[in-house]
Amino acid sequence: MGDILKGLGSTRSCHQPNHLLQTPDTFVRAALPVMLNATAIVHAAPAMGAQFVAYTAEMAAGGTLAANGSQRFVYVSQGSIDVDCSGEHKTLGPGGYCYIPPDVDHLITSDEASVAFVIEKPYEVMPEVEPPAFFGGNSSEIDAVPLMGDANVRVQMLIPELAQFDFAVNIMNFDPGASLSMVEIHFMEHGLMQLQGGGIYKLGDCWHPISAGDFIWMAPYCPQWFGALGKEPARYLIYKDWNRSPGAWL
Ligand code: UGY
Ligand code: MN
To answer: What residues flank ligand 1, with Cβ below 6 Å?
Structure first.
């Protein structure tokens, strides 16, 4: 979209009761209380109906992000960060990620300008299940498994499929022209960061062109479908609440 149209109030961003498409031209930056030499673009928060928080942390060289009591998932898209979690240490470059358990003291530091996508969610305890421990890796080391037998749509699970974890983070890989085989409607909500390529996302009754750098929130039960367009693969990182009963009273 041309700059002239942007100047006249036009954007692909769209906020509906059951979804948000947030495109980079509408990103607003604000430092969070636990940040130094860093700013956040907050994408999803309870203020808009989400049960989790998702933000992009833009960290200058020497920037820090301290603990806030929440469990965290951190995915690095640019630069390099160091994570010190109660004496355990990891250095993460592009594609690197880590899981940080709730109520654990930790400090995230960047030695160079870095960008990380952060998810925070209150941990839902499960009786007789030990809470998870700190771990990390790189998405390039995770197998890509065909989704429902479709070799053109492959899923990488960045968090192990264990009852300890109350959320999942996957990378969905679409070959050009590939699409989800069905319109999904489910009780879980999603936070999605488009990492590469683009296509068309159907969300509720809307059809949105999307491209790398866009963020999407999907409310529970938001009808959702994606088809990849263009000549390069489309990849997105997607959060969902997972492994817990949909009824808190059960
Ligand atoms: O895991 C999921 O629910 C995923 N297939 N949803 C999506 O890509 N919109
Ligand atoms: Mn889904």
So the answer is: 172, 180, 184, 190, 224, 238, 240
The pLDDT confidence band at residue 231, using thresholds 50, 70 and 90, is very high
Q: Report the separation in Å between the CA atom of 15 and the middle of ligand 1, taken as the mean of its atom positions.
A: 20
Ligand 1 centroid vs 131 CA: distance in angstroms? 25
Model pLDDT for residues 162-177, shown as the tens digit of each residue: 999 999 999 999 999 9
Domain 140-241 CATH superfamily: Jelly Rolls (2.60.120.10)
β-partners of residue 85 are 88, 106
- State pTM to two decimals: 0.96
Please provide the CATH number assigned to the domain covering 28-139. 2.60.120.10
